[in-house]
Design a protein that fits this description.
Layout: H1 5-26, H2 44-51, H3 54-72, H4 78-102, H5 108-132
Helix pairs in contact: 1-3, 3-4, 4-5
Length: 133
């Protein structure tokens, strides 16, 4: 957990920040420059696609942060929560990359963020799964 903790914190707090900003934008606040938004942000289908990730991102963030808390309390249930959170993190990043690839949209900032989400869990999931079997 020592090496995994910073990745979980950055990811989960990053998702909470991302969705807080997205909510402010939804409410009409201009909190970030329009250039920072992904391509076709105002397209209703793309907008709905983005918001379809909200429940997934909140579940994975909640499980990840709860796993950190349980680990700090020596509760062995942290492993299952962490494995679940990391699996969902991989899925969130991988699905976004697949979507952008299908659209042939290669914005380096969005690709970097989603590749990060898809790759880092792969370094920790095998150890979590082996430890549970």
């Amino acid at each position: 957990m020592k090496r995994m903790r910073p990745f979980v914190l950055v990811t989960d707090l990053g998702f909470i920040l991302y969705w807080s900003v997205s909510l402010l934008i939804l409410l009409g606040f201009e909190v970030v420059p329009e250039a920072w938004l992904f391509k076709d942000y105002d397209d209703p289908i793309i907008y709905a696609w983005n918001w379809s990730f909200f429940p997934l991102d909140m579940v994975l963030s909640g499980c990840g942060l709860l796993a950190l808390r349980r680990h700090a309390r020596d509760d062995p249930s942290w492993r299952g929560l962490a494995a679940f959170s990391l699996a969902l993190t991989f899925c969130a990043g991988f699905m976004a990359i697949c979507f952008w690839a299908i659209r042939l949209d290669f914005d380096p900032s969005w690709w970097a963020a989603n590749l990060f989400l898809a790759i880092w869990p792969l370094f920790f999931l095998p150890g979590l799964v082996r430890a549970d079997t």
